[in-house]
Specification:
single chain, alpha/beta, eight-stranded mixed beta sheet, four-stranded mixed beta sheet
């Protein structure tokens, strides 16, 4: 259904993709970069070195993978997803297994490994953790740029024997708006858990400290999930066992709905709605 790389693309125009340019600075990946630009219907520009454009973003194809640069601050570390190293790899190896809050929230128990629909996959961090714990996870993401970054990370991760099977057999991704996907979900396609981790308006932040740089990039690229309440109501209709909503620890529950239970970690709360 999803093809060789388990990726389906729908050109949906939900992001600031008109401000994105695909580029390369290494001649050995020049053709790869041009093909990517054609695939995403984005302009291509060859750079002799990493340089600042006047505005917007650029996807840089490198020998280490695809990186997203935010032109507002070219000194900012680019966004590149890596399932094998860094914070994501460490969390997979040392995150606490099924005792961690995310695992408890989706109902992972001995003998129970639910099929999960991650309706707002983003950088796929939580989806990868759940897949590493044994869940089959279908990731939905409406940003074609984020899907490109995740697909690139998945392809690179297949060369690492320790996690190749996780990527190949437990993770799939669809580039589509989650509301559209759920409205057309066949009755026979069952997900025990629907997981929602939305981007919330900056005005909701009680802690006014600067957010993580990667979140600044994402907010500039895709904006706020203004339709998250509609997604939440639809998820309650489609999930078989529960809907899990990831929230900042201080925030009110989504749409004012009282969760059946909640599970807290250091800075995060998981609101669980049993259906």
């Amino acid at each position: 259904m999803y093809g060789r790389d388990k990726i389906t693309y729908y050109m949906i125009g939900q992001e600031n993709d008109g401000l994105v340019v695909v580029s390369a600075i290494d001649s050995s990946v020049l053709e790869q970069a041009k093909c990517l630009a054609l695939k995403l219907a984005l302009p291509f520009q060859y750079f002799e070195s990493v340089q600042k454009r006047s505005d917007g973003f650029f996807l840089l194809v490198t020998l280490k993978g695809i990186e997203l640069y935010y032109c507002e601050d070219i000194s900012m570390k680019p966004l590149r997803i890596d399932f094998t190293h860094g914070a994501v790899g460490f969390r997979y190896r040392m995150g606490g297994g099924r005792k961690q809050a995310l695992a408890k929230a989706v109902g992972l128990k001995k003998g129970k490994t639910p099929r999960v629909l991650d309706a707002t996959a983003g950088l796929a961090k939580d989806a990868f953790v759940l897949a590493g714990l044994g869940c089959s996870v279908c990731m939905l993401e409406r940003s074609k740029i984020l899907v490109t970054l995740v697909q690139d990370a998945m392809q690179r991760a297949r060369s690492h024997l320790a996690i190749a099977d996780i990527i190949q057999t437990r993770l799939t991704m669809v580039n589509v708006d989650a509301i559209t996907y759920l409205k057309n979900l066949p009755v026979s396609d069952i997900f025990q858990v629907i997981y929602i981790d939305p981007m919330y308006p900056a005005s909701e932040r009680k802690n006014k400290a600067l957010v993580k740089k990667e979140m600044r990039i994402l907010r500039a690229l895709i904006g706020d999930d203004v339709d998250v309440n509609d997604l939440f109501q639809l998820a309650l209709q489609k999930a078989v066992q529960r809907v899990v909503v990831k929230r900042p620890k201080y925030a009110d529950s989504l749409a004012g709905a009282m969760p059946s239970l909640y599970i807290e970690s250091k800075n995060t709360r998981f609101d669980v709605y049993l259906v």
